[in-house]
Every structure is written in C-alpha cells, then in structure tokens.
Predict the structure.
Amino acid sequence: MTTQTEREFMIDCILSDLATYLIQDYGMTVEKAMATIYNSEYYERLNNLDTGLYCESSPYNYHQLQHEIEYGKIA
C-alpha cells in the first residue's frame, strides 16, 4: 500500500508528463497546459484514489486526457 506522500508524488509526476505532452502535441503554453489539466474531468478522476489512475503510466493517463479534450468526455 502506498502512503499519501507517495501518491501525491506519483500524481505530480504524471501531471508534469501530461503538461509536457500537451505542450509538444498541441503547442500549448505551460499555463494553458496546466489549466487544461486542472479544469478537466480527468483531473478529478486522477485525484480520486478509488480510480487507481495514479498507478497507471503517464502515456495511459495522457490517452484519457486526450480523449476528454477531443470528445468532451473520458474514454
């Protein structure tokens, strides 16, 4: 079982990777990328420990966020 600190660290790492992906793929600024993440339904699910998304890889999480960006909902 992971501690709260470990979960927070894992989520922070995922968020950093997602921002980098958005900047590379969509040409967003850092501010726009972070706003996109923080204002998404995906972000709420990432922070809900019951979903287990914090245990998934950054590419898997990015796919979830991309789906929401492109289709308005998470896959």
Observations:
- The mean pLDDT is 95.
- The two ends are 27 Å apart (CA to CA).
- The CA atoms of residues 14 and 58 lie 5 Å apart.
